[in-house]
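ingest -> validate -> predict -> emit
validate: passed (alphabet ok, no gaps, 448 aa)
predict: started
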Amino acid sequence: MPDEDALRKLREERLRRTVDLCVTAHPFYRRRFRELGIGTGDIRTLDDLQKLPLVDKSDYMACPEDFRLRAADAPGLSFEESTLWNVAYTTGTTSGMPSPFFNTAHDQYHIMMQALHCSEAEGVTRGDLIANLIPLPPMPMGAFLCVGRTAEIMGLPVVNALTGAKSKEYPVRRGMDDAIDCVAAAAPSVFWGVPSFVRSFFRRARERNTRFPRARMVVLTGEPVSAALQEELAGHLRAFGSEDPQVRVRYSFTEMQGGLIQCCNGAAPQNLAPDLYYLETVDPETGICVPEGEEGALVLTHLHRRGTVCLRYLVGDLVGIRNERCPHCGRLGERIIQRPRRTGTLVKVKGMLINPELIFEALSANRAISEFQLVVRKIDPADPDSMDQLVLRIEAEMGARARLAEEIPGLIQKTVMVRPEVVFAGPGEIHDPMKSVKVKRLVDERSH
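emit:
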């Protein structure tokens, strides 16, 4: 286990190499450094990063290709560093199209090692069988890919539930009961998925008296998880027969390809790949780091990537972090000591970031719709851990409602990759111009 000085030395060596590559072969930073008059000798230490301005998601989403190193402009790269391995995608784009995140073979191998270290720290071991409960996405997404990478590097079998919205053209997804039967036949010991879905999966499985005799651990990603939900999931594991149920909550985002993890129940999520990623918390207006432990905007810097590369990238959450050893396992890396909360205009629904403005634009173009409002709520308002629900309230003439009810859900799903429930409202229910000038287009009824 490296000491603090050795880790910092490695981080700064890798940072210098990454900055050198960005100066010569990264379209976005090549322009940005030229505008700022920054050269290869100006960013040599982690402290020097504060000389760089912050990069917002909108910068990246506007042209993801500009954040990809150009191998042709960096002739010293190895075959692994310059060869594309795969493309993952992140949601929450301004255009409605998912943003590609490019991984070279170099990146893939390091991400696999990251997956190994993270899952070993979480307590996944040889002999486990993983149930991948992440819904089958419409394109390669980090959460789904992460389960497969972990199984590959650890030499573990995995059973994929392949749930999600069914399609007549692509009948590859399973319904809940079919998925439960498929997973149960494999007898998994580790269940990996989005919290609200995992809970629905377990509840339905128990209603059907389905047995998971080897169940012992849940790995959660994609949504915040309350203490009450963690305890409920632990209770389900006990009901399946686990004597020592383990619940791990990951704080993940595509740009980190795996996220921060817990080494034991209740531990603070920690960056267990500090040789690959450097995290800061800053004042988002000035870019200046806030004192350790205080809340600030989370900023990510890639230290050793060769595909998509970001320096001082605003993740979109406010957190408090400490750069210290974990008191439970002794590992080094930034630890999140304050529950993240989201900033900005993007909204997370069912683990997906969506841009409400795209929905508003699509609906505004439909002349049959008089008024509309987007509502995000929990399926059970009394239960903060129930699944998210996207509800679209529409005011329209009676003669157009049947057609809109048929067309709109698919249109919105195509636009933001989340399917809404359509509810029709009477005249004046959404907006009464006698009471307010502006229409409240977005209502988030979830407690945060």
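Residues 4-25 form the longest helix (22 residues).
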